[in-house]
Amino acid sequence: MSAFAALAATTGLLIGGGVAELAAHRRKLYQIPVRIHVNGTRGKSSVARLIAAGLRNAGKRTCCKTTGTLPRMIMPDGSEYPVFRPAKANVIEQIRIVAATAEIDADALVLECMALIPSLQWLCEDKLVRATHAVITNAREDHLDVMGPGGRDVAKALAGMVPVGGKLYTAEQVYLDVFEKVCRDRKCELIAVGDAEVAAITPLDLAGFSYVEHAENVALALKVCQAVGVEKGAALPGMWRALPDPGAMTAHEMDFFGRQINFVNGFAANDPQSTERIWRLALERYADVEKRIAVFNCRSDRPDRSRQLGTVVAQWPAADHYLLIGSGTYIFAKYAVKAGLDPQKMVFAEDHPAEDIFESIVELTGRRSLAMGMANIGGVGLEVVRYFANRSTVRTFK
């Protein structure tokens, strides 16, 4: 056999094997009646968990896989297991999740979209999920190095996972026209959750959560549950009982030798708009503190995020100190000072472990202080949250 013939034969076998594998995956996929694909810039892990919890509480056998702070597979009884990854995260792992869900005859699967690269957004939907219901929580200016350069470009990238002939639910309003155009092209029904539906989520509805949940996330999740036949009265109690994503916004209050320290976990809010919103919420909740400490967890592999936040932080309500942790802190500092932030307010704790960061915060506090984590939950961010959580009481902003 010639080299060309051998190459052609090998190529044919590979293509044939791929076609057979895709066909097997599709058979398992269509065994799952309800497939909910969740995407967006902020809140997609929380919304995926909320939807799955609402469906579970109504008696639907529901699996859920999130890729948020820590990748998790959530089973129909609410138990959670870490998703095994022999190497880096890869969208192909969704095939294993579908197979596991089909094997236990689940009624529904809620999948958080893993893709960032625009071309992979469509690939994940068309080849791996084929959603009956798609969700795009919102479109904010984040991951601009992949989906940018601007917010509208992010919306266009996220719209890649709009299913053909399905339904798309979103709480996005600024770039809603982007989703409308794609939905028309793919004959997908667009259901937008507006201000009125968000306002209908009452303080009493939110009071049942053990962490800080946003009204738009709850409204969006309830809308999807309703579409699957589960009304608010059945879905919401299940949502209250569900475990939050490790990156969910929580407040940890502690008395450290006479010093009252209130630590707010806002690390998972990576984009400037969400981070500023949470910072203002924290300042409102702890209005009587003596010291305000903004803790920025930088990542050298996320320079664009550090640049974005550094450029705008001087425009926010001021902190007394800005504690820079993680790696690549000079990027944030460079743009923050250029934007007008007082460099004397910056404290550098690059590459410090969580216990040293805690000590740095203690040194900066007064008798009653607020410290809020921002920018990145990955790396030392999650370790800092755990450090405070193990030494304090978890509260919500009520």
What does this structure look like?
This protein has helices at residues 3-29, 44-57, 93-103, 118-129, 144-147, 151-158, 176-185, 195-199, 203-207, 215-227, 232-241, 272-285, 303-312, 329-338, 354-364, 380-389; strands at residues 34-39, 62-66, 72-74, 80-82, 108-112, 133-136, 167-170, 189-192, 250-256, 259-265, 291-298, 321-326, 346-350, 368-374, 393-395. It has 398 residues and is an alpha/beta fold. The protein has two domains: 20-241, UDP-N-acetylmuramoyl-L-alanine:D-glutamate ligase (3-Layer(aba) Sandwich); 250-395, Mur ligase, C-terminal domain (Protein-Tyrosine Phosphatase, Chain A), CATH 3.90.190.20. The strands form two sheets. An eight-stranded mixed sheet has the order 4-3-2-5-1-6-7-8, with helices on both faces. The longest helix is centred in the first third of the chain and has 27 residues, at 3-29. The N and C termini lie far apart (75 Å). Residues 3-15 have low confidence and may be disordered. It is an enzyme of class 6 (ligase).
- Report the β-strand fraction as a percent range: 15-25%
Distance between the termini: 75 Å
Number of self-contained structural domains: 2
What is the highest CATH level, the class of the largest domain? Answer: Alpha Beta
Number of strands: 15
Strand arrangement, largest sheet?
4-3-2-5-1-6-7-8
Unreliable spans are: 3-15
CATH-derived architecture of the largest domain: 3-Layer(aba) Sandwich
Helix content: 40-55%
Number of helices: 16
Main beta-sheet annotation: 8 strands, mixed
Average pLDDT, rounded to a whole number, is 89
What is the rounded Rg? 22 Å
Can you identify the CATH superfamily of the largest domain?
Mur-like, catalytic domain
Q: Could you please say which CATH topology of the largest domain applies here?
A: UDP-N-acetylmuramoyl-L-alanine:D-glutamate ligase
Tell me the structural class.
alpha/beta
**Overall geometry:** globular
Domain Mur ligase central: 38-148
Protein name: Poly-gamma-glutamate synthase subunit PgsB/CapB
Keywords: Ligase
GO molecular function: acid-amino acid ligase activity; ATP binding
